Amino acid sequence: MATPAGAAGAGIVYLVGAGPGDPGLQTVRARALLATSDALVYDALVHPDIIAMAARDRVVPLDMHFVGKRGGQASTPQEEINALLIRLAREGKRVVRLKGGDPFVFGRGSEEAQVLAGAGVAFEVVPGVTAGVAAPAYAGIPVTHRGVATSVTFVTGHEDPARERSGTDWSALARAGGTIVLYMGVKRLSDIVTALVEQGGMTPETPVAVIEWGTCASQRTVTATLSTIVEQARAEGIGAPAITVIGDVVRFREQIAWFDRRPLHGRRIVVTRARAQASALSELLRARGAEVVEVPAIRIEPVDGAALQAALDTVQSYDWLILTSRNAVTIMWEALRRRGLDARALAGVKLCAVGPGTAEALLEHGLAVDLVPERAVAEGVMEALAARPDVRGSRVFFPRAEGARDLIPTALGEMGATVDAVTIYRSVPDGAGAEPLRGAIDRGEVDCVTFTSSSTVRFFVDAVGAERARALRAASIGPVTSATARELGLTVAAEARTATIAGLVDAVTELLAGEPV
Ligand code: SAH
Q1: DSSP strand E in 57-206: where?
Q2: Whose CA is nearest to atom 24 of ligand 1?
């Protein structure tokens, strides 16, 4: 180990809580670290969308290591995980060690911290929203309530209450009187309930709730009493992961349940991401309780053509360089570096960035911009350049995305500038990103697919294949889109009455809200 822990260039491990399931319950810090880390080591209970988001839009792929249980197989032994974290950090990487919920609540995060401390590897801890608070909250159960429960105990159900030297004093716990929140207790629930009643003297009528897959779209909650919960949970087929809440606070669910009362709760709906408006559609569907699967994911692919190489060879001869996305900055920088160049190659070139994000990306490479328009769109760039006295007669290098509009080159030409507009990257449908969706369709887990235009229909059919697409019910924004869908053999089960995103969401709600989940 040549570099001391914490020194610049040395690796570091972030022990990060991913939250209980719902990707919206990640912390801002977790998001930021996931977006910028070099390596990711993650467990089974982390929501797949969080992993996909971390891997998305990277030019240098994220180094990913799954170490949880998968399909009945045992998880990676703890010693191997420890060794992996140390190795990655010693390679100089910024490593996110991502765990479900909070890393220090029944998460072995503290054991990993001990090992890292012992090895002299720098680390930081990023707390997360723990399942024992979040799952009850989503089920309409407060873990404390004034006058009803003034304390709450988090306890692992992993310990066998029948064992003589159990680490948990169940009878003391029963006598303490507050809310009991049980993690990992589904298998041992029967023994635990018995211990609480027989050893601890709790009344068998004490309310209990078991919450399976809390905060996820598939969350299910069973409520009963200490005497009936085991039978009830078994009857409903409740399995891990689940949180069990024991105490009078469970009664609040009847009044303040909210999550599972939304009209699209428990529905899985596919949104095709071919247009910018897709995120508005996803947000509206999520707000009504649906689980949204956005597909296909888009992957950024560099186009390393001769035109880019030629432009870089003579990059000092340009007066202006215009960059209209973070991706353009990253890809141009990588290309520069591959030629053995760095920021000095752009010394005499003025820089225009489309908006603050792109400007920031440039600054990360030691390049401060000369011009950022007020409006972060092509029109804004044009207006800002038109107001400059030094554009006419200048030479402009404009590396851009495939299929970008010609607005900027045309306008610059009219202003008397010479523009080299060079395609340096393209967005391609990510086949691998659509893979989990194909599985979900085959298992009958998709309730409906939404289409906002004819091109989204074609995009979707390309991504999952015609046969799978035909197995689904489609909801369309209007007659033209519906016609395209039918031409391709799809079943249009709902069509928006007004051709807007809101109209489409209403149509989906009418289609699905009345049906049993
Ligand atoms: N560090 C995690 C807990 C890990 S122990 C946290 O802070 O939440 C794993 C147990 O957590 C599971 O057996 C289950 O009891 C609980 N758990 C984790 N995610 C859950 C979820 N989405 N719904 C219900 N229980 C969950």
Answers
A1: 63-66, 94-99, 122-126, 152-156, 179-183
A2: 242
pLDDT tens track for 226-239: 999 999 999 999 99
Pocket test residue of 22, 67, 183, 188 for ligand 1, highest count of atoms within 8 A of CB: 183
Cα(32)–Cα(29) distance, integer angstroms: 5
User: Is 69 marked active-site?
Assistant: yes
CA 358, 388, 392, 380 dihedral sign is positive
With CA atoms as reference, report the closest residue to 321 among 402, 403, 424, 427.
424
Catalytic residue among 184, 248, 319, 415: 184
Structure confidence at residue 71 (pLDDT): 65
Q: Cα angle at 129 between 127 and 132, to 5 degrees? A: 125
CA dihedral of 55, 59, 64, 70, whole degrees rounded to 10? 50
Distance (angstroms) between ligand 1 centre and the Cα of 481 equals: 42
Q: Please name the amino acid found at residue 96.
A: V
Tell me the three state secondary structure of residue 482.
helix
User: CA 381 to CA 389: how far, in whole Å?
Assistant: 15
> Distance from the CA of 479 to the center of ligand 1, in angstroms?
45
184 part of the active site: yes
CB-ligand 1 contact for 437 (6 Å cutoff): no
Residue 209, helix vs strand vs coil:
strand
Cβ 230 vs Cβ 410: under 8 Å: no
Single out the residue of 13, 120, 107, 123 nearest to residue 65, CA to CA: 13
Residue 1 has a pLDDT of 44
102-128 per-position pLDDT tens digit: 999 999 999 999 999 999 999 999 999
Ligand 1 atom with the smallest distance to the CA of 132 is 8
Q: What is the SS3 assignment for 5?
A: coil
Is residue 43 part of the annotated active site? The answer reads yes
| Helical spans, DSSP H, in 443-478 | 454-464, 466-470
Tell me if 117 sits within 8 A of 34, measured CB to CB: no
Hey, what are 488's tokens?
Answer: 């391709």
Phi, psi of 351 (to 5 degrees): -115, 135
**Mapping DSSP to helix (H, G, I), strand (E, B) and coil, where does residue 46 land?**
coil
Tokens standing for residue 98: 């991502």
More confident residue, 298 or 342: 342
Ligand 1 atom nearest the C-alpha of 129 is: 7
Distance CA 223, CA 209 (A): 4
Q: What does the DSSP 8-state code read for residue 269?
A: E
Rounded to two decimals, the pTM is 0.71
